[in-house]
Amino acid sequence: MPQRKFTEGPVLKSIIRLATPIILANMLQTAYQLTDTFWVGRLGKTAVAAVTASFPVLFLVMALGGGFTIAGSILVAQFHGKGDRNAVNHIAGQTFAVMSVIALVLAAGGILLTPYLLKAMGVETAVFAQAKDYLQWMFAGMLFGFVFMIFQSLMRGTGDVRTPLFIVAFTVLLNLVLDPLFIFGYGDFPALGVRGAALATMITQGLSSLAGLYLLWHGKRSIHIRFKHFRPDWPLIRHMFRLGIPATVEQSTRAGGMTAMIFLVSGFGTLAMATYGIGMRITSFVIIPALGLSMATSALVGQNLGAGKSERAVRIARISSLTGFLALETAGILVMLFARPLARFFIPGEPGVIREAQIFLHIVAWSYGFIGMQMAQNGAFRGSGNPKLSMLLSILTLWVLRFPLAFLLSHYTSLDMRGIWWSFPISNLVAAAVALYWFYFKPWHKRRLTREVSMQIRVGNESIIEEGWED
Q1: Is the pLDDT of residue 316 over 50?
Q2: Is 186 helix (H, G, I), strand (E, B) or coil?
């Protein structure tokens, strides 16, 4: 079932058509975390702090392998725009083969290293046991999360964004039922606490990954993978690593920055940890439209550059940037207006946390528009095969600006822990200004990955046929 290439027609319509299902799918996926936070919040602030401490560790580990997935998605988008379906299938198989190995290694290492990671983060004793339980169960199901992440990325590169949406919708609805059952128990079924939230997520992600593999293996959508596509094509894999390493560094930089912030916040006690957890959950949900827009922009830019339409690719990036700014700035105003009821929704019965979370959101939310603009531009950089620009922006935002500011303002001013909150809008504003400069003055749209990789794919396929892997 070939998918439409978004290389013609009105630009804004193409952006909306591709971004909307991605945004909806991301909102549903975030519902995993929001559902966990909602039900875990009924266990008290210690349980919320345990899940909060676990999230940056999981994000860091997913980021270590996620760069290769991004590389696969970029290449699929450009070769799909070129109309080379054989190359698309070959790249998809190579992505799955390498990522499965990476996922298993990271999951096993994560289970073993969980206690040491939490101790290094300075997690309080009262939180440690629950955080360890939750984190190790999440690592146990990590392969499922990776598989579905690959499936989504590859489908997005071909323009098929509805299929992952339908799969996510089903599994999230199932998670809504399993979460309270596993966390609180029912009848003879035991209450598992925070471990139950992780187990429910693992089961539903397992089902979604199996559904994705079934569709790809049977050629039900725009990609049809076979055994021959899993035979290592080392020249292509090396090129994908060259593309993927900057993306991995970017994602790891973000995850590492989040871990460092958790370490910094944990020094101010459980109140600060719970406040930060609630504030970041709300912020993460709000920026989902920008994340979806960034992913859509990456796919659209990749397809159009693959088709040789660089001027249209630049126009897509400009319109996406403006759309991202306006959408998230509007969302930020709404969050500021409804900050208190939003905080109360996640952790009722904790007035101190609610009050501090309201302050957090009032400080941070006005800068959401700059996040939206920057994420759209990052999507354009990645789609053009220039992930190094996104990587440098992430390093600037988190390590040059945010973390040093958070440390200085919280330790050397009267702001105390609120100095951490203020580091977010300041770094968002400066990073957006730098992204604008790179967008207008760097030749990010000149690269052609289809020229660099096509010979490698041809040679790789010939080797596969000669050695009997063709079926």
Answers
A1: yes
A2: strand
Q: For 189, which DSSP code?
A: B
Tokens of 58: 């999981």
The burial of 373, by beta-carbon neighbours within 10 Å (0-12 exposed, 13-18 middle, 19 or more buried), is given as buried
Bigger pLDDT: 32 vs 251: 251
Q: How far apart are CA 60 and CA 121, in angstroms?
A: 13
414 contacts: CB under 8 Å, gap ≥ 6: none
Burial code (b: 16+ CB inside 10 Å, e: under 16) for 379-391 equals bbbbbbbbbbbbb
Give CA–CA dist 287/333, Å, rounded.
Answer: 13
In this prediction, residues 244-249 reach a mean pLDDT of 85
Cβ burial of 35 (10 Å; 0-12, 13-18, 19+) is buried
Digit-coded pLDDT (tens) for 65-103? 777 788 888 888 888 888 888 888 999 999 999 888 888
Give the separation between CA 297 and CA 299, rounded to whole angstroms.
5
Q: Is 207 exposed, middle or buried (0-12, 13-18, 19+ CB in 10 A)?
A: middle
Contact 414, 365 (CB under 8 A): no
**How far is residue 385's CA from residue 236's CA, in Å, rounded to a whole number?**
15
In one letter, which amino acid is 224?
H
Outline where 287-338 has alpha helix (H): 288-306, 310-337
pLDDT of residue 458: 53
Split at pLDDT 50, 70, 90, the class of 263 is confident
pTM beyond 0.70: yes
DSSP secondary-structure letter at 336? H
- Give the residue from 448, 285, 439, 441 showing the smallest Cα distance to 361: 285
